[in-house]
């Protein structure tokens, strides 16, 4: 994350948050990927009974909360692991466009 | 996402990617949260057998790939749902700092 | 599930539970796999900050709760989808033993 | 798991499988809950783009494979952690019926 943008600011904020509470020892890549999976599961669960037709408005606050949790762990994981998530995402989109047109970001066949 | 920063650019790129392939109909919030949970599970699985002591270097390429997938679905979900993930994350950090000091981003007790 | 055993009894109990509450319409395979992913995420989150050395005793009650949730959704999903989970698991162990010795249920390399 | 039934047999089979390959050291509760979350994510991903109306028949083989993986890790986790999954599930159904009628296995409100 080389530009000073919104993700960089969040990264710095989370770094300080963990430092202040002496939590760095819990923030190993392994623990953080697990925490992220937990939050992503909770995010999916928000809409688990929703039908495709209904509006997501009643779910908006919950979605925001869980999306926030997912991004928090993703940014913290990337900081600890030394990975730039946006570079990683763009590299994946490049591959999707060339090797798996439609496979990575949509249905197969 | 009001600033023109790296997440905005990724968002626009994914919007175009889906439009070109006529995939918008698959990108409902419900489907996207499910896809995100799937990728987050795959990300956690990268380190599932790793010990806390070992280096993550042998896993780096896989971690980057899955992190890319997670961010792709997160950004696409937020675009479709009209949610700003960084605003959501910062709001959650605010709450973490005030209401659950240490609870949301670390161990309990 | 051809034998009258503990999973069969749980299956029948869940069938009746859903029928009594008129929930069958929510229990589509798609919804149930999503609910299952949510609970599996919550289960992993129980131990997300735990070190490998510490006892799981303090976590036992939470683990039981989430394991219960995961099995509930797995059994309900299998009933609705017409899949026998034990037959599926044994078939996978067969494949693991023949094709991926050590790959499916352990580390690679 | 006090009765000799299908889950007991699977449990014993997985115990032997791990022992033969000297994998017990990887099968810690923490690792197994993470592996389970990974497989549950893959299971949800099978139907991530499916519409509620379409048949699951084209997905059946994949669903069976991932359901098998989920049950494998659930049974192995329970064996290692000393938890009976069916007892846990039934206890949860008891609580669902008394405390959260409809809350645990369906939509809220």
Largest sheet of chain A: none
- Helix count, DSSP H or I runs of 4 or more residues of chain A: 4
The CA-CA distance between the termini of chain A, in Å, is 35 Å
Mean pLDDT over all positions of chain A: 90
Largest interface: A-B, 64 and 64 residues
Return the string of H and E elements of chain A: HHHH
Helix content of chain A: 55-70%
Structural class of chain A: mainly alpha
Poorly predicted regions of chain A: none
| Relative strand content of chain A | under 5%
What is the strand tally of chain A?
Answer: 0
Describe the protein in words:
4 copies of one chain form a homotetramer. By secondary structure, chain A is mostly helical. Chain A has 4 helices and no strands. Chain A has helices at 6-20, 29-46, 60-81, 85-98. In chain A, α1 (6-20) crosses α3 and α2 runs antiparallel to α3 (60-81). The longest helix of chain A has 22 residues, at 60-81. The relative contact order of chain A is 0.13. The model of chain A has no long low-confidence stretch (mean pLDDT 90). Chains A and B meet through α1, α2, α3 and α4 of A and α1, α2, α3 and α4 of B.
């Amino acid at each position: 994350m080389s530009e000073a943008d919104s993700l960089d600011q969040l990264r710095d904020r989370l770094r300080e948050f963990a430092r202040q509470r002496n939590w760095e020892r819990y923030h190993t890549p392994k623990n953080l990927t697990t925490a992220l999976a937990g939050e992503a599961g909770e995010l999916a669960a928000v809409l688990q009974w929703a039908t495709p037709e209904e509006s997501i408005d009643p779910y908006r606050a919950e979605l925001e909360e869980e999306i926030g949790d997912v991004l928090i762990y993703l940014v913290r994981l990337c900081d600890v692991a030394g990975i730039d998530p946006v570079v990683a995402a763009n590299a994946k989109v490049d591959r999707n466009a060339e090797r798996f047109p439609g496979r990575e970001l949509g249905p197969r066949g």
